[in-house]
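Run log // design_07
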């Protein structure tokens, strides 16, 4: 297809990797972001070999690895803290690690800097107030009173996507699972050189994010989806860790004191089975396949989406053909991640068969190693 004028709604992970991939093909790209400060909360994420491959494809690998912490194993620890297995994880790209832990702010900076350097226009603090697709293009009104006409619009505006609501008003809403995650950053301890997963009724893990920083995640059942006052978050997180016997975790729990540094997140999920586009407006990332983090693949799926969307736009004669091919290439893989992650979550909550995390992770590695 010829080069297009493209609006991306959402300057998060999928929106920015889309901007990078689409600029590479010469399209004119504008990204709008609702948050005037373009801020990102301060803990981190884990990404696996398929994301390392995708970052390499996007030409981002050096900046990405400098900003994160690469590793090639998962350390499995029993509740008392003793390491009982060190599982090697397979590389997909020779000489590049099979996992990366990276701070969300660090990842955001890598992606944002590159999108700007690649020539994307970034507009902060605005949302779409109206979209009109007349078949030949999309007229867009923005909340600041400005307007524009675009060949296509990409909705990368996350779990509570406004774009999804605009084009699919009857789409399912995100659902709370009954489980939440608590996260906190610490100075990295020297023995945390890969993901350390502690077995036991409370799911706890430590993830290196850089030479200096690691974060802890704690998954807990939170029936009824309670709300916690900000000034109580540190004490509630410490309380949630009170039954974990590992001395390392106990020592870290004692350091959880800053309510503002606790990131608490009820876990929600959503999957749109049917088409991910209507006319010239297409959705990607959490807007159509938001997963719980049990396999650490949500952002990875959004990043892969952006590469596949750019490839299909380059190949097809019309946006409709490109979006249909994009959905066909992505739907089964994204469904797998959402369903398997949800099944692990339900097993942990006693609402489904217990799934061994190590088995599910091994199967996931095989699945996501397939070409995108
Ligand atoms: C607790 C937790 C842990 C996770 N851990 C991992 C992990 O370890 N590894 C992993 O790969 N994934 C992880 N994920 C998933 C990952 O965070 C998401 O899948 C990923 O952020 C999705 O990217 P996205 O671009 O679709 O959405 P987002 O990153 O949410 O970006 C959406 C952007 O759109 C903006 N926006 C929203 N509405 C509008 C609007 N109307 N107009 C304009 N802009 C708008 C938002 O401000 C935001 O910047 C985790 C998720 C959770 C909840």
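design_07 sequence
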């Amino acid at each position: 297809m010829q080069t297009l004028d493209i609006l991306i709604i959402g300057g998060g992970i999928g929106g920015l990797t889309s901007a990078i991939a689409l600029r590479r093909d010469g399209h004119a790209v504008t990204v709008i972001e609702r948050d005037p400060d373009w801020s990102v909360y301060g803990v981190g994420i884990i990404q696996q070999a398929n994301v390392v491959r995708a970052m390499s494809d996007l030409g981002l690998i050096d900046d990405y690895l400098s900003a994160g912490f690469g590793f090639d194993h998962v350390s499995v620890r029993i509740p008392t803290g003793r390491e009982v297995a060190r599982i090697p994880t397979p590389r997909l790209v020779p000489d590049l690690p099979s996992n990366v832990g990276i701070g969300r702010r660090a990842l955001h900076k890598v992606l944002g800097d590159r999108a700007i350097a690649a020539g994307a226009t970034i507009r902060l603090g605005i949302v779409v107030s109206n979209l009109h697709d007349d078949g030949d293009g999309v007229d867009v009104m923005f909340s600041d009173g400005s307007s524009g006409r675009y060949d296509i619009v990409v909705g990368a505006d996350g779990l509570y996507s406004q774009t999804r609501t605009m084009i699919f008003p009857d789409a399912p809403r995100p659902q709370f699972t009954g489980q939440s995650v608590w996260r906190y950053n610490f100075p990295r301890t020297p023995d945390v050189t890969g993901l350390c997963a502690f077995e036991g009724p409370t799911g706890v893990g430590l993830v290196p994010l850089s030479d200096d920083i690691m974060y802890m995640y704690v998954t807990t059942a939170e029936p009824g989806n309670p709300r916690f006052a900000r000034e109580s978050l540190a004490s509630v997180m410490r309380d949630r860790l009170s039954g974990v016997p590992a001395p390392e975790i106990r020592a870290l729990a004692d350091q959880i004191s800053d309510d503002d540094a606790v990131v608490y997140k009820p876990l929600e999920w959503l999957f749109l089975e049917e088409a991910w586009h209507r006319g010239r407006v297409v959705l990607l990332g959490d807007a159509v396949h938001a997963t719980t983090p049990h396999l650490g693949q949500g952002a990875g799926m959004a990043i892969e989406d952006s590469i596949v969307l750019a490839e299909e736009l380059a190949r097809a004669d019309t946006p409709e053909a490109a979006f249909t091919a994009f959905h066909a290439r992505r739907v089964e893989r994204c469904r797998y991640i959402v369903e398997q992650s949800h099944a692990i979550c339900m097993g942990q909550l006693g609402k489904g068969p217990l799934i061994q995390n190590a088995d599910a992770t091994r199967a996931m590695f095989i699945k996501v190693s397939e070409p995108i």
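The CA atoms of residues 228 and 236 lie 8 Å apart.
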